[in-house]
Amino acid sequence: MIPPLTTSWRLGRWALLTALTLLTACVTPTPPPPPTPEKPAIPLVEVPPEEWPLMLDDLDSASLVEACNQSLAYLRRVPPDRMFNYGPHQRSAASVAAGLERLRDILARTPDPNQRRQVLQREFILLAAQGSDGQGRVLMTGYYEPILPGRRQPQAPYLHPLYSLPNDALEFSLRQLCESHSDMLKIDCSTLPSKRLVGRADNHKLERYFDRDAIDFGDALRGKAQPLAYVDDLVEQFFLHIQGSGQVSFPDGRRIRLGYAGSNGHPYRSIGKELTDRGLLDKHQVSMQNIKKVLAERPELRREVLGKNPSYVFFRELPAVGGPPGSLGVPVTGGRSIAVDRSLFPDAGLAFIVGSRPVPGGGTVDFSRFVLAQDSGGAIKGPGRLDLFFGSGGQAGELAGRMKHEGRLYFLAPRR
């Protein structure tokens, strides 16, 4: 995390009020997004036994056991009486962990799908996500862990840095800032937003942190952030930011994994929309592959288009073994981990998804499988969004970039 505001950074009453006014303006200058369907009051509703899907699983059992083990590692770190919401039901961490252990036993003992469903109905309650429309519609997209060639030091064409946290970045909220100076201010701090902001001190004034254009093209981080590696493609660097983690391989065969450490606090904006607005892509053509293709063919547009997304991600170095860590702090598993809205769905929870997925070489197939809710994402908000982790490397990226299909999402809550 970016270090919080410290007592060594002193603001007078006038400067604080100026900062509050400035930053309040910073968080509200852009037009509001288009209205979205109202969230259902309860994001999960119970499914009667006669309406359960067959629970066919198109992946190997070893990957499911691995994903279950990672959820168990998380659940054993939290207090056993911590409660998780399954729509109208609540379950403790101890209950969710016991349910995952029973699932592993059920999978080993009952390979027949019909028998397995009967056993699962005795052990679990099935709940369906209400989706974006209240009718179960869930948009499923994909993400992956890129593996990019790189260098430790800049060497043409490896000139695009992947930065660690800058030493001048300050993380706070307007409410936190107000409360820390409540003895000086005569305002109700609770009325201020608690949204995370990132700023910097400039000539004793608080300013918003540098945006993508200033960092990539204005050398704004010189002397302020350590480059962890350099890559040879600005667009690949951009998509590594979007994924939030990745690996860099070096000529001697070594690899490092870079995990999310923080951001510059600017909002994420889709460059796919920018390309459709320019008439360079149709809406149905927006994918990672097509965006890369357009920017490869029109390199003169790179700065302007990439700069439309001011958000910038900073990294920390992690061991290059296992999978990348998700938002629960445990490694995610290819094909088995999903990112969902953690304010609506249970952390580490066992889920089941039904839909369509891309296959190598083009085309799609219907699929269904057990998955675990082990991650989150800035664009994964509401009951109608899900992001499936496809794994690491080029093929995973090709499939994840084409994943954009509607499907169904279910959670299984232990009966006891």
In brief, what are we looking at here?
The chain has helices at 13-26, 61-75, 93-109, 113-123, 174-179, 212-218, 234-243, 271-277, 288-297, 302-306, 394-402; strands at 44-46, 83-86, 89-92, 124-129, 138-145, 147-151, 160-163, 170-172, 197-202, 205-208, 227-231, 246-249, 255-263, 313-318, 337-339, 350-358, 364-375, 385-392, 404-414.
Helix residue percentage: 25-40%
Could you describe the largest sheet, including whether it forms a barrel? 6 strands, mixed, barrel
Low-confidence stretches: 1-40
Number of domains: 3
Oligomer kind = single chain
Derived from helix and strand composition plus strand pairing, the structural class reads alpha+beta
CATH architecture of the largest domain: Beta Barrel
Q: What is the count of β-strands?
A: 19
Q: What is the typical, i.e. mean, pLDDT?
A: 89
Report the end-to-end length measured between terminal Cα atoms.
37 Å
Range of strand content? 25-35%
Alpha carbon gyration radius: 23 Å
CATH superfamily of the largest domain: RlpA-like domain
Quickly count the helices. Answer: 11
Strand order in the largest sheet: 5-18-15-17-16-19
What is the succession of H and E elements? HEHEEHHEEEEEHEEHEHEEHHHEEEEEHE
Structure write-up:
- It is a single chain.
- The N terminus is likely disordered.
- This protein starts with 12 loop residues before the first helix and ends with a strand.
- 27% of the residues lie in helices and 27% in strands.
- The strands form 4 sheets. The chain has a 6-stranded mixed barrel.
- The chain has 3 domains: 74 residues, no CATH class; 193 residues, RlpA-like domain (Barwin-like endoglucanases, Beta Barrel), CATH 2.40.40.10; 39 residues, no CATH class.
